[in-house]
Amino acid sequence: MTANTSATVSPSLQHQQPILRILLIGLLMVLSGYYIWVLYKAITPNVSIAYKAYYIKNQTLYWQPKQPNLALTLPTTLEITNNIPNLSRAGWNIETNNNMRELTQQGGLYFTLPTAPTANVKITFTLAKALLQLKPITFTFNHHQGTLLPQDQGKALIAQLPKQQFLPSAQQLQSLILNAPTPLQVTSISIVPIDTNTSDTNISTLPHNTGHINQHIGNQK
Length: 221
Prior knowledge:
Elements: H1 2-43, H2 49-56, E1 76-79, E2 92-97, E3 100-111, E4 121-127, E5 137-141, E6 144-151, E7 156-161, E8 174-193, E9 204-205
Parallel strand pairs: 7-9
Antiparallel strand pairs: 1-8, 2-3, 3-8, 4-7, 4-8, 5-6, 5-8, 6-7
């Protein structure tokens, strides 16, 4: 009697095994798809440029919800003692003192532009006091190298950014990072398109054909 019962149950179990296997494979595929979607959303979150730069990539020093794109309109002058969301988290002192903010080692700006400039752009870092021994300072602009030259008897550092070096899209984050060997006490930064009729030949210009470099400033977690 027992042998007959086993004989009738075994074919039923054998028939159910392929169905269970298909169900398990289907469940694994659904779960895999879900986790891939979650990972994709984590890597490419639908957030503003400013939110991503401050909270996700740790690039910027301040978070300003009213400036979601970190957009600047040229010409512009940034008063460094204000909580400007364009300042890099690396390099800048969070505290201000005597109408200036100190920049040490590597730091600078992150910003976007509504439209790409049609002319070269002059950038000026104005210092709190003249430094007679001020030397040229190297920087990277969108992964291209350049040099800020002392002007105004050591009271300012100036360079020219070629229009070809700007990223073309309004949604692309422009980055300018200085490599300051000694601390700089900065009061303001001005970014002004250069009038081609009155261009200053004494301003350092970025070379047009420079190699790319890896930049990790502000991206460390």
